[in-house]
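Quick one: structure tokens for this chain, please?
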Amino acid sequence: MLTKRIIPCLDIKNGRTVKGINFVSLVDAGDPVEQAAIYSSAGADELVFLDITATLENRKTLVELVKKVASKINIPFTVGGGISKVEHVSELLNAGADKVSVNSAAVREPELVNRLAATFGSQCIVVAIDSRHVQGHDLVHTHGGSKPTELETFAWAQEVEQRGAGEILLTSMDHDGTKQGFACELTYRLSSALTIPVIASGGGGSVSHFVEVFNRGKADAALAASIFHFHEVDIMDLKHQLEAVNIPMRI
């Protein structure tokens, strides 16, 4: 059985790690380079770096900061934010990223997923989906969660898989930062229908939430931020507790 993955996330704004609730009310959460080094040595399976205002500010990801983070870690490293061209991906991979995450640009131009997968390989391409439940429907949001679309989350996930995405990063905006648990029903719907891995994001607040998203949500990986940034949950302790209930971990 494949091991499940625990992934800390660095949401970056103005060169600092930030964290909010439901994508708003952001507070400073530390220096991303220092945090990356700590997570790499603390048992994290991967690291995700999201430049959360790059698209809103119509600019590329902070490449120099990516280089600094990459120099401090020895685990797989996914970078997202403002990626809209093949050249952006080349630049980030050369800076030390292992995978890239695309969201708004893929929604605007779905063929981008095809081009990136064909150029770099599906294993390198993560499609991030920021989903909010609106009037009975799970809808994709773009531009750091600020712009709703008419795309249904499930249909969009199926489409990007067909276009060559190698992984889905599913963030429930309704659960984000609440520490009340992941969106297990939505995660299960995607995980059970897709053949590519699904990373669950948004709402992780306790060990029991991770147990639930792996068992009930069938997630391949679980991503969290504030509980790790503010030392509420220790990664290795979390992994040992998950392994104790027969959820396979890399320890």
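The chain has a mean pLDDT of 93.
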